[in-house]
Amino acid sequence: xxxxxxxxxxxxxxxxxxxxxxxxxxxxxxxxxxxxxxxxxxxxxxxxxxxxxxxxxxxxxxxxxxxxxxxxxxxxxxxxxxxxxxxxxxxxxxxxxxxxxxxxxxxxxxxxxxxxxxxxxxxxxxxxxxxxxxxxxxxxxxxxxxxxxxxxxxxxxxxxxxxxxxxxxxxxxxxxxxxxxxxxxxxxxxxxxxxxxxxxxxxxxxxxxxxxxxxxxxxxxxxxxxxxxxxxxxxxxxxxxxxxxxxxxxxxxxxxxxxxxxxxxxxxxxxxxxxxxxxxxxxxxxxxxxxxxxxxxxxxxxxxxxxxxxxxxxxxxxxxxxxxx
Length: 325
Prior knowledge:
Layout: E1 3-5, E2 12-14, E3 18-19, H1 32-44, E4 49-53, H2 60-68, E5 77-82, E6 84-87, E7 90-94, H3 98-112, E8 117-122, H4 131-143, E9 147-153, H5 157-166, E10 171-175, H6 187-194, E11 197-201, H7 231-251, H8 255-264, E12 270-272, H9 279-286, H10 295-304, H11 317-320
Parallel strand pairs: 3-4, 4-5, 5-8, 8-9, 9-10, 10-11, 11-12
Antiparallel strand pairs: 1-2, 6-7
Helix pairs in contact: 1-2, 3-4, 4-5, 5-6, 7-8
């Protein structure tokens, strides 16, 4: 099992964690029994980094994890995002108000059935609240022992620097994959300078890089609203995936494993949290840590998927507007 240190002064965690969002209706119907089995299997294999958020299906995801880790809290590293108002239909408006943060953490603790959260992350920066005030509230939770480490997600360079000046930031959670590499220009060098680790979510670009989808009609969930999965974009991107599948076959691994291995190969300060609710795919994803990419492999991958080649944004416009604040 591969472990990595999260940030200069952070904890040692599993290099491949488990993103739990899809267990709460994000990609198809929820199945609590199957999902809990996957979480238990992840812990059994030592891949203990479990990522959730209080707004995943109005707290359902936290309740689910609370059940799965009952009697095994010491084996789990809980990464929880907050800062988006909870609603039955999904993430609501962004809120970084200190009072909201103080209230939200107590509800998360109740749902998770724990008395502390390992990594508490601001999911989005609230443009109406100075980031210093939000981080100040989070630092109070650290002082009280309710939270161990503080994280940011999808934050702009200026916000990261301002936040780090108030309290040490352990991790930045942000989308990073073969298809989403914008952070390489400025964000990644800056967080490395600040000693902040990277938690890369969506390393498979919400399943597209697995090579399982052949037509836009194959999708029956919220991915149908994402530009990369729509119309001409879908077919252009599928051509790239087919090339990755060929390369993966030559390496004796799956396209998913190659994509995850590529993320891990970008630095020892990076961990990744591919999401799944099935043990089969969990074990496949975890096996990616055994895929060794040579310099020649990385050059071949780069030739297929250079920065900016993917067609379409990763989110619809209304969600893109909440990023990089």
